[in-house]
Write a structure and sequence with these properties.
The protein is α+β, with helices and mostly antiparallel strands and 86 residues long. It is 48% helix and 23% strand. Strands 1-3-2 form a 3-stranded antiparallel β-sheet.
């Protein structure tokens, strides 16, 4: 489920908070796990930004959520990091 900035604002989400930085693949997996828990998120990818600007790049992604979802989201992020270390 892709969530645009517009739909996040439309859902009355308060200020966005950065909760994770990682590879595009890791961030997309985590975004899916958050969605399964009912937490909307916004994924900003350097690769997507590069494609829009006319050049491709691989890099990191940043995952943002509403501050009101911080506690639940951070539990999911901590579990994700524990499972994916090393």
């Amino acid at each position: 489920m892709n969530v645009s900035i517009y739909s996040i604002k439309r859902r009355n989400m308060s200020e966005l908070k950065l909760i994770y930085e990682g590879t595009d693949i890791e961030s997309q997996i985590l975004k899916s796990q958050l969605a399964e828990a009912g937490i909307n998120s916004l994924l900003r990818s350097e690769a997507n930004d590069g494609r829009i600007a006319g050049f491709g790049t691989f890099g990191s992604s940043r995952l943002f959520i509403s501050e009101i979802d911080t506690k639940n989201a951070m539990e999911i992020v901590a579990l994700f990091k524990t499972r994916n270390q090393g």
